[in-house]
Design a protein that fits this description.
Shape of chain A: globular
CATH topology of chain A: Immunoglobulin-like
Largest sheet of chain B: 5 strands, mixed
Strand content of chain B: 35-45%
Oligomer: heterodimer
Strand order of the largest sheet of chain B: 4-3-2-6-7
Number of domains of chain A: 1
Structural class of chain A: mainly beta
Number of strands of chain A: 18
Structural class of chain B: mainly beta
CATH architecture of chain B: Sandwich
Largest interface: A-B, 15 and 13 residues
Helix content of chain A: under 10%
Radius of gyration of chain B: 18 Å
CATH class of chain A: Mainly Beta
Number of helices of chain B: 2
Number of strands of chain B: 9
Number of domains of chain B: 1
CATH class of chain B: Mainly Beta
Distance between the termini of chain A: 39 Å
Low-confidence stretches of chain A: 1-24
């Protein structure tokens, strides 16, 4: 059911457009775990995956799980149990059999584009090698998308948090399962392994239905890609960032997006 | 050789521990609550140094024997203790883990040189007592103290919901 990294290409072919933000569909994409700090010999978290405007509301559509990748405390993949998708959300369970931190992510990467043939604009995914003869005005973009969250059984660990150096990523300076309301948490952003300087990051608390203020903090990373998150109230928070680099010198347009859910506990 | 090492250890132990060892007595009142569904609270008693770092966990009262369920599952509900100490400990911990207690006042005495206090270095500390109850609330009570005590002292702090009086008596 679930896509190992080697099966990503299949997932991409099936659902890439639905995994990437566009002007037409700028809904927030999120993975919401049932708990982030757990204890015991073993445990389990259940996770909702959805796209919506309100946080964390099931109101728009489920997130496809073809590209789900769960990394265990030892850096090895963990098999989640996919329970399925309803009208507004997908649900899966992640068994926690090992002490430490798990990274749960929907990850996609691929090339998308469009070309003109016989006066009509056509869209395509994958390599330009397979385009029909006579295609003109070929435009391509190289896209990465990552939607993730973190959970810890026992003491926090770092192995699962190592960057893949592909796309836009958050490298925690403050451990993502050691964040509490009222204490600053420092995160670092990378684009393809390099510091994502001057990156705009949206930071919003859940519970948007119950307040008038959208509560959106627009933050910006420094030259090292760092920024500080401060949650006034405990709760689940949503983070989003994206970057676009125009096509140039034969290189395709580069688009990368990142979203995460972090739980700030009360102290 | 073996004999002389044993003797050396004994001598060091004597030097660090005066004939009348310092001790701290802690009493914790668990209030009787009139609620529809009552479960005895989980309680953690620990010591933090002046920087807020946990240096000793003295007692953790929880469902040590909840077989076949895992009683440690709810330990993070004592969230301050969990973050500062519990998550890095192996539970159950010998001499620290104990079953939950009924409402009433429970007294514990910790002696310098004996586990779990062991040899607590001289300094300013805070005694913390945290309680978390299933289908109930959570509360943290703190009492600052100096170690070793220059004189016998006594201090009391009172919780408002999950804890009653918490009393710390130190003896030199």
């Amino acid at each position: 059911m679930f896509a190992k990294p080697s099966l990503l290409a299949l997932g991409l072919a099936l659902g890439l457009s639905s995994l990437l933000p566009s002007q037409a569909d700028a809904h927030r994409r999120w993975l919401l775990p049932s708990a982030t700090v757990l204890a015991g010999e073993s445990d389990l978290v259940t996770v909702d995956a959805a796209a919506s405007n309100g946080l964390f509301l099931f109101e728009h559509r489920p997130m496809p799980l073809d590209s789900l990748v769960v990394t265990g405390p030892d850096g090895e993949p963990v098999d989640p149990t996919i329970l399925g998708s309803g009208a507004y959300r997908s649900v899966f369970d992640v068994p926690l059999a090992m002490q430490g931190t798990y990274r749960i992510a929907l990850v996609s990467e691929g090339v998308m584009g469009s070309y003109e043939l016989n006066g009509e604009r056509q869209r395509f995914r994958g390599s330009t090698d397979e385009l029909p003869a006579g295609a003109t005005d070929i435009r391509t973009s190289h896209n990465n998308s990552r939607t993730e969250t973190f959970v810890t059984l026992g003491a926090p660990s770092d192995t699962a948090l190592q960057p893949t150096n592909s796309g836009l990523e958050m490298v925690p300076v403050t451990h993502p399962n050691d964040v509490v309301a009222g204490e600053p948490a420092v995160m670092r952003f990378l684009l393809d392994g390099q510091p994502a300087a001057d990156l705009e990051v949206e930071f919003v608390a859940g519970g948007t239905r119950y307040r008038d203020d959208p509560g959106i903090a627009m933050l910006r990373t420094d030259a090292e890609g760092r920024l500080t998150l401060e949650a006034g109230e405990p709760g689940m928070y949503y983070l989003e960032a994206s970057s676009t680099r125009e096509a140039a010198d034969g290189e395709p347009e580069r688009r990368a997006s990142y979203t995460a859910v972090l739980e700030f506990l009360p102290l | 050789m073996r004999v002389s090492i044993a003797f050396a250890f004994a001598a060091t132990g004597l030097a660090a521990t005066p004939a009348a060892a310092q001790e701290m007595a802690v009493s914790v009142e668990i209030p009787r609550l009139r609620v529809a569904e009552y479960h005895r609270p989980y309680v953690a008693i620990w010591i933090e140094d002046a920087s807020g770092k946990s240096v000793r966990t003295l007692d953790v009262w929880y469902d040590v024997d909840l077989s076949p369920e895992d009683g440690t599952k709810w330990l993070p509900d004592m969230r301050t203790w969990w973050r500062r100490a519990g998550r890095s400990m192996k539970m159950p911990a010998n001499g620290v883990s104990a079953p939950t207690k009924a409402p009433g006042t429970h007294a514990r005495t910790y002696r310098q040189g004996s586990r779990p206090l062991a040899n607590l270095p001289a300094g300013s500390y805070t005694l913390r007592v945290e309680a978390a109850r299933e289908v109930g609330g959570r509360e943290l009570v703190s009492l600052p103290f100096q170690w070793p005590p220059k004189a016998s002292t006594s201090a009391t702090a009172r919780g408002k919901s999950e804890l009653g009086a918490v009393r710390l008596t130190t003896k030199r």
